[in-house]
Amino acid sequence: MSSDLLFPDGTVTRFFFNTPFFSLDNLLPGRPLIFITDRNIKKLYPSLFPPSRTVVLPPGETHKNRRTVNYIYKSLLEMNIDRSATLVGVGGGSVTDLTGFTAATYHRGLTFGFVPTTLLAAVDAAIGGKNGYNMGKIKNCIGTVRQPGFILWDFSFFSTLPEREWISGFAEIIKHGAISSSSHLDFLEQHTSDHFKHDKLLLARLVSESVRIKTDFVIKDQNEGGMRKLLNFGHTLGHALEHSCKLTHGEAVSRGMVYALRLSEKISSLNHEEALRLEALLKHYRLPTAMDFKPGPVFKILAKDKKKRGELIDFVLLETLGHASLHPISFEKVRKDLYDLCCNRP
């Protein structure tokens, strides 16, 4: 199933939903396809990646850095890749982020597209055109906003996904319902992660709705000047936790959402029953909710977050389930709250 998504700047992204990977050459005729993937994906699916057309990266978020970007540049130059080529990022969020950034900057811009192989990338990282890399522990501080020419979802890749990574993806799916659609939350409450694992039609429905929610935000605010910032629900604290506590992205964002729920009850209009409902849904999908980390290392990263402005830092809070708003909060208040929640750990 295919469709075209038109952005206000005239950019078009083609969506190939629930489409086999091997269809790519027929779907995109006339342009050389250069694959960028990581060692894990290459090892699992060696026949999919011709050596002469593939750049293989070390796996994981720790390698989403300038050194890896330079390695991709060097590989493309050695392969004599010019602007007639299309880069295809096949992998999780690190691969898609690096592919998009490289495509935006190599020879001043190549066409590119994504084949997400993780649930997290399928509903989040591959969507929206944000591409880049980390500087040390500061996440995504170097990057571009440039939409891919296409995204292809082949759910067969999920069959080799480790359980922890599979569960991680549900944090972003739950987040989309929390900020925009209470009916999406209703749907999630009626199922479990195992239901989606064993029913591909049900999974397709879940992913397509989550993609729809995110793309609605992106189309209305492509460069994150306003409402797109609401997609950061759970991420202000979550990004700091991800890099200080060795958590998956979903595990960190889940804890970040729990903290944002606490703030939403104090500062916004969210009632306690709704906060408990969302926290229960996170637990239902086996995501962590306990505030059992040491705040000290987290604050060092929060202090450099791109959402921090002077003594204030932006948090997305819920008014009700399905409705969110942006609140600048004193960094000192966040510090005190977190020390209290974490039982005054150093």
Could you explain how this protein is built, in words?
The protein is α/β, with parallel strands linked by helices. The chain folds into two domains: 2-160, Rossmann fold, CATH 3.40.50; 163-341, Dehydroquinate synthase-like - alpha domain (Dehydroquinate synthase-like, alpha domain, Up-down Bundle). It is built from 14 helices and twelve strands. The chain has helices at 24-27, 39-44, 66-78, 93-105, 119-125, 163-180, 182-189, 193-198, 200-220, 235-244, 249-267, 272-284, 295-302, 331-341, and strands at 2-6, 12-16, 33-38, 54-57, 86-91, 111-116, 130-135, 138-145, 150-152, 308-309, 312-320, 323-330. Strand 7 and strand 8 (138-145) form a beta hairpin. Helix 6 (163-180) packs antiparallel against helix 7 (182-189) and helix 10 (235-244) crosses helix 13 (295-302). It is globular. The model has no long low-confidence stretch (mean pLDDT 92).
Structural descriptors:
alpha/beta; Rossmann fold; Dehydroquinate synthase-like, alpha domain; seven-stranded mixed beta sheet; three-stranded antiparallel beta sheet; 12 strands
CATH fold-level name of the largest domain: Dehydroquinate synthase-like, alpha domain
Number of strands: 12
Order of strands in the sheet with most strands: 1-2-9-6-5-3-4
- The oligomeric state of the chains shown is single chain
Largest sheet: 7 strands, mixed
- SS-based class: alpha/beta
CATH superfamily of the largest domain: Dehydroquinate synthase-like - alpha domain
Number of helical stretches of at least 4 residues: 14
Detail the poorly predicted runs: none
Rounded Rg? 20 Å
Helix content: 40-55%
**CATH second-level architecture of the largest domain:** Up-down Bundle
Tell me the count of domains.
2
- Chain-averaged pLDDT: 92
Note the beta-strand portion.
15-25%
The CATH C-level class name of the largest domain: Mainly Alpha
CA-based shape: globular
Distance between the termini: 52 Å
